[in-house]
Amino acid sequence: MASSPPKKNAAFTIYLPILDADGDLVAGGTALTSTLSGDGAVFAAGPVPTDEGEGFYSIALTAAQMNFDAVAGVLKTTTAGAKNTPFTLYTAVRQVDALAFPVVSGRGV
What we know:
The protein is mainly beta. The protein has strands spanning 12-17, 33-38, 44-45, 50-53, 56-61, 70-76, 85-90.
């Protein structure tokens, strides 16, 4: 199971829907592309998304693409009526699973 938030400088896969103007899922999107921006830099071509079925798609980001405090991106398709899907990931050096909690008598986690 994935921890939260996404870890800085570690590969991460994000799963997103593509919707049409009515809010319906768009399955079988054509000519899938993505663009990415790290920490507000100019958007550039990102990895090719994968069709996961039922209108959901995944984008596998590399460790280098996640080496920012904020990663913004857009999932795109040329399918008629489909809308672009924007996303923002805020990364952290430590994830919730890695946090050490002090054990104090009667209050340990």
